[in-house]
């Protein structure tokens, strides 16, 4: 990635202009760009043959590709990366886009999930892509934990937080549980976790249980272990990723191959696969990151691009992320500042609330 500016510097003016115009033309309409199209409004008077020669050189460098259906060229993934890192002009969000994002923050409600859902809808609306919003974990102190039996093979872990928020998580309890073992397991945990946040207890609770497990009988001990496992795993994976605007991806599909890739992406999003890794994409702190095609480890099978930015709380700690996902021919120069603006607005809103 860091070699892009150097490679662009080493190009002559003509090669650089041909490369830029091919990429911009492709990003605008998704079609291959031909030499005749470029000669019409090129900055200097050159023949189509000269432009074709330049395109061949750029293809040899791995920056352009020629689909068999056309004499025109499209950028490769490497070409898109070089354009994004070295040539892309980033605009500022226009007033209309900013107003639509701002409007989601207008209501003074306690439901952060509902607010972030509206943010996701607005973000997909202004970018014409699918939006992803990773919501923050609930960080209020825990007031109470309870196990509720639903059937022989189904139970709930119920978490009640000091601010009134309640979370329920379904799991399969170990066989043979009784009402008294469930009560004993809950009493044991409540003595350990009351007044602590999920983050506080995650590392400490397992070692504490190991030290004190002889205090409870075998049935209750098994329930504590399995209940905690589903509580901790689900904390990273379930119901934290809000996806809006999937229909925009279908509208952008041109070829049958595009549709296949989008179906693969939908499958990934349905499974919410590797959501615990979503925040890892934002490592390196504040700012927008762009993942093109196979660089995007979460959705690489679909060959999609992801523009993502973390948002932070008042302590400058990353607590979530917002992003836009779509085909590799996203209008990166427009979408990057919109994602950046949205992330900063969400961070400020959550910081003000806390």
Automatic annotation (TrEMBL):
Keyword match Repressor: yes
Gene3D superfamilies hit by this protein: 3.30.450.40, Heat-inducible transcription repressor hrca homolog, domain 3, Winged helix-like DNA-binding domain superfamily/Winged helix DNA-binding domain
InterPro entries on file: GAF-like_dom_sf, HrcA, HrcA_C, WH-like_DNA-bd_sf, WH_DNA-bd_sf, WHTH_transcript_rep_HrcA_IDD
Keyword list, A-Z: Repressor, Stress response, Transcription, Transcription regulation
Pfam families assigned: HrcA
One function term, GO molecular function aspect: DNA binding
One GO BP annotation of this record: negative regulation of DNA-templated transcription
Heat-inducible transcription repressor HrcA C-terminal domain span: 115-336
Region forming the signal peptide: none
Function text: Negative regulator of class I heat shock genes (grpE-dnaK-dnaJ and groELS operons). Prevents heat-shock induction of these operons.
Family membership noted in the UniProt record: Belongs to the HrcA family.
PANTHER family: HEAT-INDUCIBLE TRANSCRIPTION REPRESSOR HRCA
Protein name per the record: Heat-inducible transcription repressor HrcA
